[in-house]
Design brief:
single chain; alpha/beta; Rossmann fold; 2 domains; six-stranded parallel sheet; 8 strands; globular
C-alpha cells in the first residue's frame, strides 16, 4: 500500500447524512420564517466553516445569535439521527484497511462527545487509533486541529491520506502536509468538488483501491 495512515472525515464521508442535514435545517428555517432548501441547493452551496453557508440562507444573520441557530440545528439533527446510516462500502473499506494493519483515525467538525457517541453507536470506534472532534457545535475550521493531531499521534504526513467529502477536508490535509481524495456522496456535490481542480473526486469509496 502507498499509505500507512488513513484519516477519515465523518459526516458525509463515513455516514450518509446529507439529506438528514437538509431535513434538520428545514425545521429550523420554518421556525425562523425562511424559505426552505432542497438537497440540490445544499450540495451546491454548503461549505465550511458552516457559518458561511448560513449567510446564504439567512439574509439577516448578523442580527441573529448564530450559537442559538447551531444549538437548534443540532437538536433537530439529533432527533433525526436514528435514520442515519454508514455507507456500506465505507465500512467495508475501513474493515479491510484494519485487517491490513493500516492506522486509521477520524478528524471531524462534529463536536467531540457527539462524534464519540456516534462512532460507538455504529460499532466503529475499535477501528480508529484516535478521533478528533470539535470543542463546540459550530463546525468551524478543523485544519489546525488536524495538523496538531497528526503530529501528536505520530502520523507521518508523507504516508497519510485524508478521505473526505468537502473542499475543507482538502484544506485540512494540505495544512498537515498529507494527500487527499474526496468522495462526492456527502455534503458537497461532485461538480462543486471538481470545480476546485485540486484533488481526485470519486463517486464511491469502492473506488479507493487505486489510491491506496
Amino acid at each position: 500500500m502507498k499509505y500507512k495512515n488513513i484519516i477519515w472525515d465523518y459526516n458525509g464521508t463515513i455516514i450518509d447524512d446529507a439529506q438528514l442535514a437538509v431535513d434538520a435545517e428545514n425545521i429550523l428555517l420554518r421556525q425562523y420564517g425562511k424559505p426552505l432548501i432542497d438537497l440540490d441547493f445544499y450540495l451546491k452551496e454548503c461549505e465550511m466553516p458552516i457559518i458561511n453557508f448560513y449567510r446564504k440562507i439567512y439574509d439577516d444573520l448578523d442580527s441573529i445569535d448564530f450559537s442559538e441557530l447551531a444549538k437548534r440545528f443540532v437538536h433537530n439533527y439529533d432527533m433525526l439521527f436514528e435514520n442515519a446510516e454508514v455507507f456500506p462500502e465505507v465500512k467495508e473499506m475501513i474493515e479491510k484497511l484494519h485487517k491490513q494493519g493500516c492506522r486509521q483515525a477520524v478528524i471531524s467538525g462534529f463536536e467531540t462527545n457527539r462524534l464519540r457517541s456516534s462512532l460507538d453507536k455504529f460499532g466503529l470506534s475499535r477501528y480508529f487509533e484516535f478521533m478528533s472532534g470539535a470543542d463546540n457545535i459550530s463546525c468551524g475550521d478543523k485544519s489546525e486541529r488536524a495538523a496538531q493531531a497528526l503530529k501528536a499521534y505520530g502520523f507521518d504526513p508523507q504516508n497519510t491520506l485524508f478521505i473526505g467529502d468537502m473542499y475543507h477536508d482538502y484544506e485540512a490535509a494540505s495544512r498537515s502536509g498529507a494527500d487527499c481524495v474526496l468522495i462526492a456522496k456527502g455534503h458537497q456535490g461532485k461538480q462543486v468538488l471538481e470545480s476546485y481542480g485540486v484533488v481526485p473526486v470519486l463517486e464511491s469509496a469502492a473506488q479507493l483501491e487505486e489510491y491506496l
